[in-house]
Amino acid sequence: MITQSPISTRDGLSAASMPVLNIAMVGSDSLAKEIAKASDQRDVHTYVHKENASDGSQRILSLIRPAKFPERLRPLLGALGVARAGLLEITEVNAALGEALIAFSSSGINHGIFVINPSEGGWVDEDQVKGLMQQAGLGGWKQTPHDGIQIREMLQEILESSLDELAKEETLPLIVPVDQFFNVKGIGLVAIGYVQQGKVSVHDDLLALPSNGMANARSLQVMDDDVKVAKAGDRVGIAMRNAKEEWLGGGAIIVQNPIVEKKADEALPIPLVECSKTKLTLKKSPFNRRTLEKGDVVHLSLDLQFAVGRVEEVDGDSLIVEWDAPILIRIDGPGRALLNQLDSNPRILGQITSLKSC
Q1: How many CB atoms lie within 10 A of CB 11?
Q2: Residue 134 in 3-state DSSP?
Q3: Angular region, 233: left φ>0, alpha ψ -120 to 50, beta rest
Q4: Where in the chain is the domain with CATH 2.40.30.10?
Q5: Beta bridge partner(s), residue 87
Q6: Least buried of 54, 87, 170, 318, by fewest C-beta within 10 Å?
Q7: For strand 85-90 and strand 20-26, is the pairing parallel, antiparallel, or unpaired?
Q8: Which residues make up the CATH 3.40.50.300 domain(s) of the chain?
């Protein structure tokens, strides 16, 4: 997603990163650039705005825009997995809008902004849009004019209201799904990913799952700055001492090494468990009329994992699914888990409210 500069070794590390609000955006590049500065232009475009708060500290808005949605769903699912707020630019009422509403709603993104901006010569019924927002469960989202400065101010308000939630997420066990990794001359292997929860500090002992490869955090970088600590919401580059590339491919997730100083009685909790079959509870999206049956092929998106599975049992909203390859699931809850079916319409079936190994 966001390309990071190589980890540097300069002195003067900042004590910790500033609060970051990650925003999943479905809309145009031109609107995004009115709000924040373009940072990376891959299949997911990113834009960053830094601003000083009244107390002199810095706040960061990070827009994550899947440029090829609705043609491709997976980049949107990845953005939703790390976002804490949403931004939707509505140019017309169509199937793509319906799927975007389903995506935000099923991901539990209750904080958001929508902008009605009809295509040239077009017209959008504002009352119809508001009705659809209500039906999708996004009645708490706020409408704003097509004005980058005003949108930015509203997003800053969402960030301020989310500070307690972000602080709480920092206290949870570390989870960093890896979406990029590369070698840097003189530094070694660098893993890139969003801190989904918890925090990581320089010199922490880390574990890459599912390979169980153990490494040490040689240095950290957030927003091109060297830091001592990266916290929930940060996109971090971790220079990993004694790591191997084969540990980081195919949906790898970094957690804290569960053993502190090799003392089993001081073991840290591992927040993930690997499994090949799960029992899950599906909360259908408001516009989903599809009824799953035994033998149906489904797709799971969770912590940047995109797994293919087959339904073995159906009991109302409860399903047992056998996955083609083992997946990592959270032991304390499903997280931002979505169940999808890429050949259906809509492709997002709904939110997974319970997910357990069986």
Answers
A1: 6
A2: helix
A3: left
A4: 170-266, 272-357
A5: 25, 113
A6: 54
A7: parallel
A8: 20-161
Say which residue the tokens 């500069």 belong to: 5
Kindly report the CATH class assigned to 170-266.
mainly beta
Q: Which residue is it, tokens 């975007």?
A: 100
For 246-283, write each residue's pLDDT tens digit: 999 888 999 999 865 555 555 667 999 999 999 999 99
Report the predicted TM-score, pTM, of the whole model to 2 decimal places: 0.90
The structure tokens listed for 218 are: 């040689």
Q: How far is CA 221 from the centre of its chain?
A: 19
Here the tokens at position 191 are 């893993």
- Is residue 164 within 8 A of residue 135, CB to CB? The reply is no
Cis peptide before 70 (omega within 30 of 0): yes
| Superfamily (CATH) of domain 20-161 | P-loop containing nucleotide triphosphate hydrolases (3.40.50.300)
Q: Angle at the Cα of 302 (from 300 to 305), degrees rounded to 5? A: 80
Q: What is the DSSP string of 54-76?
A: TTS-EEEEEEEEETTTTT-SHHH
Say what the pLDDT of residue 355 is. Answer: 97
> Are 215 and 243 a contacting pair, CB within 8 Å?
yes
Region 29-41: mean pLDDT is: 92
Q: What is the pLDDT of residues 316-326, one digit of tens each?
A: 999 999 999 99
* pLDDT, mean over the chain: 90
The pair of structure tokens assigned to 215 is: 């490494």
**Is residue 17 pLDDT above 60, yes or no?**
no
